[in-house]
Amino acid sequence: MVKTNGAIQFVPLLRIVLMLIIGILVGDALQNSVPSVAYFVLLVGLLLLFFIARKHPLLSGNIIFLATFAFGAWLFSLKKNDLQRCPTDVPLVYTAVVCDVPTVHGKVLKCNLLVIDTENTSQCEPFKIRASILRDTLTHRWKTLVPGKCIRAQSVLRNDFTFQTHSHFSFQRWMAAHQIKATTFIYCDDWQQTVASERQWAALSVWQQLQLRLLNYRQKLISQTWSGKLNKDKEALLASVTLGEKSKLSQRQRDAYNLAGVSHVLALSGLHLGIIYTLLSLFFSYLIGLFVPREWTHLCAQSIVIPAVWGYVFLVGIPSSAVRAAVMISVYAVVSLLNREKMSVNVLALAAVIMLVYNPMLLWDVGFQLSFVSVLSIFVFYRPIYHFAGINRWGRIPAFLWGLIAVSVAAQIGVFPLVIYYFERFSFYFILSNVIIVPIMTLLLYTALVSLAFWFMPELTRLCLALMDMLLSVMNATVSFFSGGVDHLQINGVQVCLIYLLIGCLYMLTRYVYFLYSPIRYN
């Protein structure tokens, strides 16, 4: 009988995702040396070897890990080759669709374009580019560019991405993670609006067409419900925290929330989806409970809530943090029907596997890294921190506040090395700001959802707008008061790894000391 290897035996998917990540990293390191076919041959060979050795648990298990490693390297190689299939460095005439919300940067308008047709090239599949369009000062045609608009343009596409920054943020990695194949500069006279033909629209996949429709619908929701009814800063903040529309956020707002240690409220994540899931579950459980037997209520409610949660994720643009949260909530809902453990590191690892298989370049996305590391850190550190203060002797409200502090500290332990590495800053007041911001954020999101659901009731909408205006004012005042920290902190990748190693060693030492002396405490 094979002896299990401790606690890690209970999180098998963690080992799978680690081998997948190592494979992706090796594929990146050897991208110019090893062709994708070599990884594929290795993968097939390992799978054949697995079937031969499947009666030997230890050997077959190690073969599975090696196959996962080869699979990760192969996936990276395929995605890298796909990103390089783009006509570059030559003048190109093409038809494209605006596929995000354009933003003004100085003299240019920046947006993503989905190229659906090109002239004089063999490129047949639509691909995404990042465009900088020179704004004309006479006709202001650039103001007509909104999501879904189709243009005919001529420019030179480039894939030698250059982005000057003092931080470790890589513009090239960011482009790859968002599946953008090239950048281009379009002069104001080199584009015009057009109407795509049926053949050109047919080139778009069902998924791409759905994304464009949802993007347009999101903009209509914002304009019909909130546009012009709040000041610009509050409207931009509300659109960001509820529908993931961050194009209107000013740099001043972003910096203030970063310095206060609450930038996570600007990115749709587990906090937002958890609030939405809880609200929908309570509502539909009550509503369905009026018509169906009690034993079927939970199943029927979850059958409605989970598609609604995923619909919300699609509506807000499928950010990596929201996808991670949606996968975990979906698993939570399924296993809750089976009365099993609802949340674990296994569920987090499953979400990572799904996302990395879909797009291995997400491994270098800052949002992806922060999202998964923060949740993993909460899994590891939340319980020890929460129970450290003997919370059972406290009242309900102090226990709730201590729970918020424990979550904030646990998440910060995991992400602060990455925050310093990428953003070169650290917030001192993240505990206090989160204790205030998170409850306000919960009320704000509930109110915003009510205003969206009942937009056809003017009196209720006005009441919701007044409440949201007050909550946004309190949020901004809190952020302004707690915007303090240290800037210009610089560490390299090796130092980040050493910090995580130190955190791990301190955690293991603390556990050892606790279990060594805990019997004495109760004698």
Automatic annotation (TrEMBL):
Membrane topology: Multi-pass membrane protein
Boundaries of every DUF4131 domain copy: 35-187
Parts forming coiled coils: none
Swiss-Prot/TrEMBL keywords: Cell membrane, Membrane, Transmembrane, Transmembrane helix
Location of the ComEC/Rec2-related protein domain: 242-509
A GO cellular component annotation in the UniProt record: plasma membrane
Protein name as annotated: ComEC/Rec2-like protein
Annotated source species: Hoylesella saccharolytica F0055
